[in-house]
Write a structure and sequence with these properties.
This protein has about 120 residues and is α+β, with helices and mostly antiparallel strands. It has one domain. Strands 1-2-3-4-5 form a five-stranded antiparallel beta sheet, covered by helices on one side. A hairpin with a 2-residue loop joins strand 1 and strand 2. Helix 1 crosses helix 2.
């Protein structure tokens, strides 16, 4: 008697891309880099800094690294999600490059310092 193979669960790429992006965000946070995660349309976006948005489809991360003047288009790099530690390192390097060229405004810096002082005053 023939039996049917077990039912394979449908891959939920929207949820998978979001969970992987959340792991990236958490790892960046351990390096002192704040980020936000947004999801939709089977992709997740990790907004890190002005000019640094990391896309994730559950299998790879990719982000813009510059502009090709000859081709008049953006240049992107990618990294597999299976190697999260190295992806975090590469993104952190890009973040540092962008921070040099686009520092925090006086208003944002003051708000962050105020928030840090508030958190430091909280009981453990």
């Amino acid at each position: 008697m023939d039996t049917l193979p077990p039912r394979v669960a449908k891959f939920d790429s929207d949820r998978n891309s979001y969970s992987v992006a959340e792991r990236l965000r958490a790892e960046l946070e351990t390096r002192g880099i704040s980020a936000e995660v947004h999801k939709g349309y089977r992709l997740a976006l990790v907004w890190v800094w002005v000019g640094l948005v990391v896309w994730c489809d559950g299998e790879r991360f990719w982000w813009r690294t510059g502009w090709d003047e000859g081709r008049k288009r953006a240049v992107y790099v990618w990294h597999p999600v299976a190697d999260l530690a190295r992806a975090v390192r590469r993104i952190a390097f890009r973040y540092a490059e962008l921070r040099e060229g686009h520092p925090l405004s006086t208003l944002v810096r003051a708000a962050l310092e105020e928030e840090l002082e508030r958190r430091a005053a909280l009981p453990l």
